[in-house]
Amino acid sequence: MTAERPGLPTAADHLARLIEYSETLHAHPETAWQEHRAARWTAELLAEFGFTVTTGYLGFPTAVHASYGSGGRRVGFIVEYDALPGLGHACGHNLIAAMSSGAAIALRPWAAALDLRIDVIGTPAEEGGGGKIEMLDAGAFTDLDLALMAHPGPVDAPRAEPYAVAHDHVRFTGHTAHAAAYPHEGRNANDAFVISQVAVGLLRQQLPPATRVHGIQTVGGAAPNAIPGVTEGRWYTRAETLAELAPLRRRVRQCFEAGALATDTALEFTPESQPYSEFRTDERALEIYQAHARDLGRRFDAPVEHQTMNRASTDLGNVSQLVPAIHPYIGLDCFPVSNHQPDFAAVCVGAAADRTLADGATLLARTAHTYFTSPPA
């Protein structure tokens, strides 16, 4: 961190505790809807600093709500703490949790003067589960005047421009048979998956440029001499907006229906969550964030092709449609190492991570401070 501007909140006084919290989350990754220890550690951290804490918030076992102050205006710092299957904290949610919690802690002395209630909302299942969308449906977030979080990435990219995304589980059910002795008795569920992937590949020629279709096969069969009776996979479809996503997802589903038809298997194409929305940025809050970031020595001049983590989908997009929000990406200065790689998990602890944590927490706190100090133009 560079020299601090007098009178503005900083997380530096509590940095050692925040690093400990971040490193603990990193060492014990938990996937979507299973973040029981992460939720408990988050609740314990905030209780230490005088927050009133509710666990199992709104009936979600791994959601947390913490508040400080009783002002008429409400700022929410959003915590994510789920990890990726097989990759741990390769998206840096341990740092998201620590930055948001640290910002809320740093802002406490200004709560009364700014007429604020400071909320920290711990949200499960961002990595494909749509936890914030379910929480939004249950009544979370909507009383906030501003929602903030910062996401680690390889470089700074302040404006979130995520794709809208649909997450679908795919299952083909056929009939097993001996592949040499009785192949005519089988209905090959793996062939269904192959045909579907070929159809998706051919569909790409007709896709608009700003779309993405990708996925994995998670179950492919048990033995080479047994025709697979069941295959499964997970498939993501992305577009610029929810409106553009719906017809694209229909065409992707038709590719899987073609695989089922060709192989005489049964298809189950099941949403894993509600679709994630595109993001609506609060321009004034983003301008304030960028000004404070420059004061701290953060730079926004990385090549555009290095900044594309800001296209990653997030369920905070759905929240941003109803609540003023920002979702800047704060860099670990590690490109070409980037999110969802094992090497990125490695850089989410250590000296670079500690600097990013301190800067991110300070910037979120200062953004909120200025936002509620300075009236809109």
Describe this structure in words.
The chain is an alpha/beta fold. It is built from 10 helices and 12 strands. The protein has helices spanning 15-27, 36-48, 93-107, 131-137, 189-203, 242-263, 283-295, 316-320, 342-347, 351-373, and strands at residues 52-55, 64-68, 73-80, 116-123, 146-148, 151-153, 164-173, 212-219, 230-239, 266-271, 325-326, 329-331. Strands 1-2-4-3-5-11 form a 6-stranded mixed beta sheet, sandwiched between helices. The chain has a 4-stranded antiparallel beta sheet with strand order 8-9-7-10. Strands 6-12 form a two-stranded parallel ribbon. The longest helix has 23 residues, at 351-373. The radius of gyration is 23 Å and the shape is elongated.
In a few lines, what is going on in this structure?
The chain has helices at residues 15-27, 36-48, 93-107, 131-137, 189-203, 242-263, 283-295, 316-320, 342-347, 351-373; strands spanning 52-55, 64-68, 73-80, 116-123, 146-148, 151-153, 164-173, 212-219, 230-239, 266-271, 325-326, 329-331. The protein is of the alpha/beta class and 377 residues long. It has 2 domains: 12-162 and 278-373, Aminopeptidase; 170-271, Alpha-Beta Plaits (2-Layer Sandwich), CATH 3.30.70.360.
Which keywords apply here?
single chain; 377 residues; alpha/beta; Aminopeptidase; Alpha-Beta Plaits; 2 domains; 6-stranded mixed sheet; 4-stranded antiparallel sheet; 10 helices; 12 strands; 35% helix; 19% strand; elongated; para-aminobenzoyl-glutamate hydrolase activity; dipeptidase activity
